[in-house]
Specification:
The chain is an alpha/beta fold. Helices cover 43% and strands 16% of the residues. The protein starts with a strand and ends with a helix. The model has no long low-confidence stretch (mean pLDDT 98). The structure holds 2-phosphoglycolic acid.
Length: 243
Amino acid sequence: MRPLIAGNWKMHGTLAEAAALAGAVRDGAGGLPADLLVCPPFLHVAAVAAALRGSAVAVGAQDCHAAAKGAHTGDVSAAMLRDAGATHVILGHSERRTDHGETDAAVRAKAAAAAGAGLVPVVCVGETEAERLGGQAEAVVSRQLAESLPDGFAGVVAYEPVWAIGTGRTPTEADIAAIHGTIRAALAARFGAAGGTTRILYGGSMKPGNAAAILALPDVDGGLVGGASLVAADFLAIARAAG
Ligand code: PGA
């Protein structure tokens, strides 16, 4: 299947910097062997969507609320994101799970709300270093997957080992392939044919130098890129490595 390279801009950049980065990605997006998605902070979604309108680069947010509207100070609904020009939303990123105490059940409700509003949910799972060292990685990821995905899920899954995010460290290629194979089997068992075609992204210190090897692994259908997505040339180099 055609890979997806998604950039998670996290809490970086002024409005002007976001617009400039979006423009640079747009200018380099022609003829790539992957679909591109950029996920700016909420505040910049509308401007980035406007800068990318008519291009091949999609726009997503980094979270949404599970409710359609209401008294939820500081939150943003999936419908608002859609209205602002987003087509995707990252949900259950480990930084949300840690910083905001998001549970699998909360992520599941958000994913259902996102889909209901017409957004493609990009649901993140991944073990901590202690869980990896304790031999629990597959069990943790399997539980997160089972409990974070709503019934009828038709989105994207991102496997992001927490200890690989922003650290420059990555699992071995064999370990990445093993977890992606486990995720694929679980998706196929639960969702049938749709689970077979769900894109499973790898995330965690993906860079131009390691992207080709990771993206060539079985059941790795793209990447969720943090730090390297803030430099257009690096993000585009990763997308080129998907070919
Ligand atoms: P990183 O972040 O590429 O900077 O490790 C990935 C992510 O958190 O999505």
